[in-house]
Structure formats: structure tokens, C-alpha cells
Amino acid sequence: MFRLYSKGCEYAIRAFLYLAAVENGSNKTAQSICRKTKIPESFARKVFQSLVRGGYLEAVPGNGGGYRLCRKPDKVSILEIIKAVDGEKTFEPCILGSSKCNCRKPCLLHSTWEETKQSLLLNLESTCLSELVEFYEEIEIKR
Amino acid sequence: MFRLYSKGCEYAIRAFLYLAAVENGSNKTAQSICRKTKIPESFARKVFQSLVRGGYLEAVPGNGGGYRLCRKPDKVSILEIIKAVDGEKTFEPCILGSSKCNCRKPCLLHSTWEETKQSLLLNLESTCLSELVEFYEEIEIKR
DNA sequence: TCCATCATGGATTTTAATGTCCATGATGCA
DNA sequence: TGCATCATGGACATTAAAATCCATGATGGA
């Protein structure tokens, strides 16, 4: 089945959209983020940790702490979040599953997929958090 | 991690590309298709069966039988194969995992993803087997 | 100091996808 | 008829992703 990104990544994007929407420089606790965006807390915490390591999220320790965005929402693209969670190379493997596929020895789908992929990545790269948030007054992420 | 389609679908496409390349109206046994395209036979057989049911592959029973394409390679798109194996709705679910997401109640990524998806599907739909095969003399699907 | 928070890592469970194996039956060619 | 093939479906094993739980430690505000 088709999947643009992992579940952990889906949760990260939801959390980021939430933080971007409420953000005024302040932080939110992991618990409140997870409740508001309806994501499983114990799983999401691990995702948040890796995002902190990647420099995409800032951890505020201590009482009244939590997480906040490191950069302004207009400087964070969807593609960045995906790569931060699923890895830099998530879109790189050969689409036909060949480990030997490359530009010099392409598989049958290689050039076709390369073109499609470029436009896909371009779209994801040119969409930042602030763009998404400004269309809606209220966060609309519900199961 | 990103995945355009399932493993079963990957194998189906590899098998179709092989059949399109050797095709002159003749059929190939399941065994020879799997060996040539380096796909696991016991798993692929089940995929072939569902493709027969879907009308994408013709089963030739009896001794010297096997499978052959139902339609000419220039009439079969990559998108069709994907949908035949992974289901018609494989690209439909909300990208943010919301079951309530639709055009009237969109999630935050809805319209952005809708656009990106349309161009993705268009590319997959406009690419047929014959296009891919004619670029290569020899089938190049190796692990 | 107390407590709520984040940080870290290990263990475990659940679920879905993937892959293997086997038994039964039908078909069509030599 | 004998055999190689496909058709079907069930049982099962393996693997990866997703989810849960727990224990320990550090931080900073009240």
C-alpha cells in the first residue's frame, strides 16, 4: 500500500502543525501536544527526542517545560520534517527494488520515476508550516 | 519510510515488464517469470492469481501453459498495475491519518497533498509498459 | 526539597506485511 | 493415462513497523 511517510512522521507533522498554530515563542508539554493532536504519547515521545537531536525541535526541561519549534513556521518545510524522521534517504531507494540501480545502470522505471519524484519532492519542499496553518483558524486534526 | 507500492506490486511490475519485453503473444510459465525477474515464486504466484482475477493477466492452463498479458503493453499503465495489486483506493487515504478528512472538512495538508498527488498519479497513469521496455534491449532487473 | 517535566534506553507486545509450505483439484498436451 | 501446469485456500514463519511499558537520571520552578 502507498505510504508517503511512516506513522512516526505523520505524528511529527501533526505535532508541528499544532505547535506552529499555537506558537508565539512559547512551549507546550509533550502531554498536551499529544492530547490535542490525538497521537499516542509513548510513541510520540521517542519521535520528539529524535527531532530534538536533529535540531528541529527544542526541548525545554524542568517544570513547565515541553517542546517548541526551533525555527519559525515559515522556515520549516514538510520535506524537512519527513527527512528528519524517516531519514535523509527515504526517497532514494530504487522503485523496482534493485540495489544495482543507478544513473549509469538504470532499472526500467528509473528515469520515469526520477522525474515524478523530483516534482513530488519539489512540492513537499516548497510547502512550509506557516502556509498550511494560515488557511485554518482552528487546528483540524481529528480521527 | 516512503513506499509507492507494496512488495507484491513491485514484483507484479517486474513481471509485467518482463512479459512485455519478451511478449509476442506467447506465454511464460510462472516459474520462468519468477526466475528471470528474481522474484520469490511462492509469493508471486498469489499476486499473479489476483491479477488474473482483475483481468490484467491471462492464465494459460495445462502443460506448456503459464501467463501472458491480456492487453498490449502500450495499453497498460503503471498506475493500473499498482491499483490492481494494492487496491483502487491505495492513494486515497488522508495523508495526515484523519478518517474525517474530505473536501468539505479538509485536514491541514489536504489541498496541498491533493495537488501533489494529482501530478503523481498523472505521471504514473501516462506511463505504459511499452514506453519503458523500448529503451532497453535487455531486461535489467537484478538485485 | 518536592514535583513535573524531559532524556535515555531496554524490554515487550501487537499488528501488518511479507514469505514459505502444503494439500487438493482442474486442465490440456504428449 | 501420465505429467506439468494453473487454481485455491489454509496454515505457518519471518520480518518490520508501530505501540506500550518501565526504570533511571537530570533539570528547573514553586
CATH structural fold name of one domain in chain A = Arc Repressor Mutant, subunit A
Q: Output the strand order for the largest sheet of chain A.
A: 1-2
Assembly state (oligomeric): homodimer
Give the number of helices of chain A.
6
Question: What structural category characterises the helix and strand content of chain A?
Answer: mainly alpha
The number of E-state strands of chain A comes to 2
Features:
143 residues, homodimer, mainly alpha, 2 strands, DNA-binding, 6 helices, two-stranded antiparallel ribbon, Arc Repressor Mutant, subunit A, 47% helix
Secondary-structure map with pairings?
2 copies of one chain form a homodimer.
Chain A: H1 7-22, H2 30-37, H3 41-53, E1 57-60, E2 66-69, H4 78-86, H5 110-125, H6 129-133
Antiparallel strand pairs in A: 1-2
The first copy, chain A, binds a DNA duplex (30 and 30 nucleotides) through helix 3.
Explain how this protein is built.
- The structure is a homodimer of 143-residue chains.
- Chain A has a domain at 7-88 and 128-133: Arc Repressor Mutant, subunit A, CATH 1.10.10.
- Chain A has six helices and two strands, in the order H-H-H-E-E-H-H-H.
- Chain A has helices at 7-22, 30-37, 41-53, 78-86, 110-125, 129-133, and strands at 57-60, 66-69.
- In chain A, helix 1 (7-22) packs across helix 2 (30-37) and helix 1 packs across helix 4.
- The first copy, chain A, is elongated, with a radius of gyration of 17 Å.
- Chains A and B meet through helix 1, helix 4, helix 5 and helix 6 of A and helix 1, helix 4, helix 5 and helix 6 of B.
- Chain A binds a DNA duplex (30 and 30 nucleotides) through residues 1, 6-8, 29-31, 40, 42-43, 45-46, 48-49, 52, 59-67.
